[in-house]
Amino acid sequence: MLALLGPLACGAGQEPAEPASTPREQPPAAKKADAKAPDADKPDAKATAAGASASAYQCAVPLALNGTVPPDIYPHNNDRDANCFGWQEFIALNWPVASGAGFGDPGDTGPVAWQGYMSSNQLFRPDGSAPPPWGTPPTITPECLAEAGLTAAAARAAVPLTMSTKFSSEFESSDGQQAAPRNAPAWLGDVRGNNVWYEVRVSEDEYDTIVQSQLYNRDGQAAYYQKNPSTALALPIGTFQPSEVGALELKAAWMEVPNPDDAQWNRYKLAQAVVVDPATQKCQALTVALVGLHIIHKTQAQPTWVWATFEHVDNAPDVADAATTQKVWNFYDPSCQPRTVQVPAACQYNDQASVTVSCDANLPPQYWIGDGCPAPTPIRVTRLAPIDSDSQTVNQTAWTTIRAAYPDSVWLNYQVVAVQWSTNPPPQSSQPVSVPQVFNSPSPDSNLANTVLETYDQRSKCIDCHQYATISGSTTLPSDFSFALQDAQPVTTGKPKPLKTAAVKAGYRPLRRIIE
């Protein structure tokens, strides 16, 4: 049964309780939660009372330290509940895979649960063909392995990272970006001038639906609407009965680690990775540190999804504190100096041959990175909206729980920024077969921006963009709020062609593909 129960303890006005000692539970063998719940179409008001049935999710203190993802957020009625739900997901999804591993052991580069989800690079193949079976690890090309000095066996422990912006793949020539700007450079350089790498992964329930409905290519998505012209595409819903996690997508941001043996990295979740150097196009093996994570989850109580975002506490200062801070953050250097970069023609944006990267905060870059282009430069970042009191309270609650069992856990250095949900979600059947899709009564929390995932558009909520998400190749047909489906390519034979953006027409060559 789902060990998330007890009196609702994250309500407004309550102080976080001091947790009892929590045993080190190992991740469950099953991929899906085994809890059962009353019919969520008819929520029982009594379920919100203390001592509610073990079939309903409640934000309890202490939070459960295990790898069981809660399939639904019901019951909940405020932002603090939602933030607790986000933290419970974060704990479960970051639970270690290796038997005997602690939750967030410093220096551990072993995989956590969500890293076993299917990568969008594997799910949406460049030729539109069917993806590999669930659980198939990505295979790095022999040429890339040779450049990185890795054997095929050693590479199985490394994550291939090829996305230099939040949404773009190496085939789209940076057409997809962070939340903004669109169709413009949107990479992010840390204080050392190293690029931030992104990846997108989906849950097994979502993978199954995409494969069974042949939504893994553009042709299959178009065929869905040809067969169902009056029914909006719907991804699976997380439920207690039957117990299913449903559609769950993660978008992660990783920062390059130049000196992984330094003690400062004991505050980060680390992983071994293979990346393509943006300037040289050569593959290199390196260590990366997790700095941001989106978790979006479609559930029966929230068919318009729950939108949670987390990031490392050292990423960037609040804008109000930036002028006086003495700390060197991951993305804010108090001693910043403007840098001038000479840009070859193929890498220019808006025909700028010489670009000065200023020390003004949150300005998107003005040149492309890729084959033959300049390396990234540091981008100065500040948080425009402070993390609100509900999120701060739940962060303290989660840290207290983790510290009691894992006092050195790296997860003590990660925080929920906010969780967005609908106070009056429309039923799935009411969704129009066009964008924008309906998202009723968004939760009052407006501080939803992640400084490494929405660096250049911190004034918008997730749903402001996602309600306009369409299937691949369409500007009107909705994809159930998921931008991941836009990565689907047409069915082709031979080598796929990159999109003909202005940069490509000028001779720009994006980062090469390193996954077979």
Looking at this protein, list some descriptive labels.
single chain, alpha+beta, 10 strands, two-stranded antiparallel ribbon, disordered N terminus, eight-stranded mixed β-sheet, about 525 residues
SSE arrangement:
Elements lengths: L78 H15 L24 E2 H4 L18 H7 L3 H4 L3 E3 L34 E7 L1 H9 L5 H10 L20 E10 L12 E7 L6 E15 L8 E7 L26 E4 L11 E4 L31 H17 L8 E7 L41 H5 L35 H4 L11
Helix pairs in contact: 1-7
Report the strand count: 10
Distance between the termini: 40 Å
Structural class: alpha+beta
Helix % is: 10-25%
- Mean pLDDT rating: 85
The biggest beta sheet is recorded as: 8 strands, mixed
DSSP summary: helix tally? 9
Low-pLDDT segments, ≥5 res: 1-54, 167-177
Strand-residue fraction?
5-15%
**H/E element order:** HEHHHEEHHEEEEEEHEHH
Global geometry:
globular
Radius of gyration: 22 Å
Structure description:
- The protein has helices at 79-93, 120-123, 142-148, 152-155, 204-212, 218-227, 389-405, 462-466, 502-505; strands spanning 118-119, 159-161, 196-202, 248-257, 270-276, 283-297, 306-312, 339-342, 354-357, 414-420.
- It is α+β, with helices and mostly antiparallel strands.
- The strands form two sheets. Strands 1, 2, 3, 4, 5, 6, 7 and 10 form an eight-stranded mixed beta sheet that branches. A two-stranded antiparallel ribbon has the order 8-9.
- It starts with 78 loop residues before the first helix and ends in an 11-residue tail after the last helix.
- Residues 1-54 and 167-177 have low confidence and may be disordered.
